Amino acid sequence: MRSRRFHLILILGTALGFSGWAAKSPQDKTNLAELKKGIELFESVLNQSLAQTFGGPFETLNRTRGAYLPGYGVVFSFEVNLTPWQVLGPFSHAPTPKEEKTQREEESRRREQAISVAAQTLGDYGQSLSLLGPGETVAIVIQTVAAQPKKIERSTIVLSADKNLLVARLNRSIDQAHFVQKLSKTEY
Questions:
Q1: Mapping DSSP to helix (H, G, I), strand (E, B) and coil, where does residue 130 land?
Q2: In this structure, are residues 145 and 61 in contact, taking their beta carbons and an 8 Å threshold?
């Protein structure tokens, strides 16, 4: 009986010790309520910038959403329609080679606009995420979709900046052009 009670106390003590250790994790060090306000501010600014850049109701396919990942940082995500809305529809005619080329050029231009808006917003408003821990990162995931006559093309673009780069931009030790050059960019 005593052995059983001892084991139970040992297990409870260990569990309490681990819960105390977990309470001191980086997640608690960061004031999550304040960080949430910064995330919401950044989402709002990015959504407004996207609406001004792309306009119409079918240009951006969802609103920007952000999430804090303890130990990594903050990740934002949004989706952009690269195909002009006039081209979509069941009664659209088959595009001519010239129209296809023009559409591809427009898709490329819109992809670059999405990247530019994300990079500009990150450079100008990244300071709203100042509560990130050292070594943490802010990433923006841009999902793109382009409707082609026989298929849907999807791609993903990830822009990321670590806290040191954001601080350098905030302190104006680097300008926006250098900030954009130092951003990590992955596209697939």
A1: coil
A2: yes
